[in-house]
Amino acid sequence: MSLNGKVAIVTGSGAGLGLAYAQELARQGASVVVNDVNEDVTNRAVQSITDEGGKAFGVTAAVGSTETAEKLVNAAVEEFGQLDILVNNAGILRDRSLLKMSDDDFDAVINVHLRGTFTCVRAAYDYFKNNEVKGRIVTIGSPTGQRGNFGQTNYAAAKAGIVGMVRTWALEMKRAGVTVNAIIPVAATAMTETVPFFSAAIEADKAGEAMPDFFRKDLGFGPVADVAGLVAFLASDEAQNISGQAIGVGGDRLQVWSHPEPVATEFNDGGWTYDALQSKGRTVIENNLQEVGEKMPELPAELQPKA
Ligand SMILES: NC(=O)c1ccc[n+]([C@@H]2O[C@H](COP(=O)([O-])OP(=O)(O)OC[C@H]3O[C@@H](n4cnc5c(N)ncnc54)[C@H](O)[C@@H]3O)[C@@H](O)[C@H]2O)c1
């Protein structure tokens, strides 16, 4: 089965992962509305798709507002006659530890990722419902949203929020036959290029060599093309039974993430007063403390960043 005849929007698809998603969707037969904030970047992405024989149309606009969301849906309908697939990928980083993070740092990240996902999904779902389209929505989470990460208060809030919205939307969209999932990607892009931990992998990739197995398998880290297949699959008719999931992919690795579940349940007649918590509740909590932060395997000596 292919995506022939389908129409997709991919936000932030001028570069990085978004570009790989747009190219893969086009390769599988979909017509793609490409979007980015910079006109040249948008046009180059459109060109890269049409050069390969695919169909693409560019919309230069900043994702976040309702106006942009509606512009994107309208572009799909006006240029290609319909909408079937929305991939909400646009994103930025403004990393700082909590005390250094400004209101602007917080708002900018929340606006693109969290608000942008909300406004675009609302506009696409409105179209799907009114036109009885069993649409496909793919949103983008992050290991940081799942586990937390030092210096990423704003990004952790946005990415955890996206997965929270996906769980809610899967319930709301079920009757309409629309699926919505979050993917949790890890890949070599401008966003990860400067992380010293990945430098041996980035160097190999830039030299046109395969990344070492440690990165591809233990870390689930590879080039952007490794993530694009999952987006195309979730956008296909075959993925009709998959909704409300958070699915990790990168390098050779595919992971299905759990949603939060209680790990311990205890009862106290009359409720959990301060006294009851001191005597009995404390042990229940302390015996079940959960770890935070991403679990990173140790980097082998030969793959350490060069000083
Ligand atoms: N690279 C990774 O390992 C990784 C891991 C987890 C999540 N992600 C997520 O994947 C997505 C893509 O990341 P990437 O690594 O390709 O980043 P990137 O910086 O390489 O690309 C992001 C693209 O989005 C565009 N963009 C930024 N703000 C925009 C806006 N308001 N409207 C439209 N376009 C906008 C940028 O111009 C850029 O072209 C992001 O949501 C990111 O948080 C990436």
Question: If you had to describe this structure to a student in words, what would you say it looks like?
Answer:
- By secondary structure, the chain is α/β, with parallel strands linked by helices.
- It has a domain at 7-187 and 224-256: 3-Layer(aba) Sandwich (Rossmann fold).
- Helices cover 44% and strands 13% of the residues.
- An 8-stranded mixed beta sheet has the order 3-2-1-4-5-6-7-8, sandwiched between helices.
- The longest helix has 28 residues, at 103-130.
- The chain is globular, with a radius of gyration of 21 Å.
- The model has no long low-confidence stretch (mean pLDDT 96).
- Nicotinamide-adenine-dinucleotide (NAD) is lined by residues 11-12, 14-18, 35-37, 41, 62-64, 89-92, 112, 140, 142, 185-187, 189-192.
- Pfam families: adh_short (PF00106).
- Belongs to the short-chain dehydrogenases/reductases (SDR) family.
